Structures are given as structure tokens and as C-alpha cells.
From TrEMBL:
This is Histidine kinase. The keyword Kinase applies. One of its GO terms (molecular function) is kinase activity. The lineage of its organism: Bacteria, Pseudomonadati, Campylobacterota, Epsilonproteobacteria, Campylobacterales. It comes from the Bacteria. Keywords: Kinase, Transferase.
Amino acid sequence: MEKKEIAKIINKDIKTLYNWEKNNPNLYKAVFNYFSKKENNPLESKLLELFEKLDEKEKKYYIADMEARILKKEIN
């Protein structure tokens, strides 16, 4: 994702991103990596979008289910 797009999404001027890149590189990298990762993996983005629509009890259920499936794979 380009700086111009990121600036628009976070409602900052593009100059702010350039300043972060120069004066606060860790903040810039964190923001840039977040948006790059989000853009690069649409499957994870979709999963997160759906997960956020669940209530807390449902979230706990699906997390437990995923953990159980992973443990089962590791055992086999």
C-alpha cells in the first residue's frame, strides 16, 4: 500500500508519514507493516472481519476449537 493511501485511511497528511519515517522510524514501520500485511493477506482480513462480528462467548468457542485442532495436528 502506498503512503498516500495510508495517510488517507489514518486521516493524516502524507507529510506526517514522511516525518514519522525520518524522526520516528519504529512508528512508521509499525503503521506501514500493519497496512501492508492487511493488504497482502485477504484471507486473514476476512477471518478477522468475521471474528469481530461474534460475541465474546462465540469467540472463546472458536478459539478453543482452533487450539484443539492445532494440538490434534501436533499429536499426529
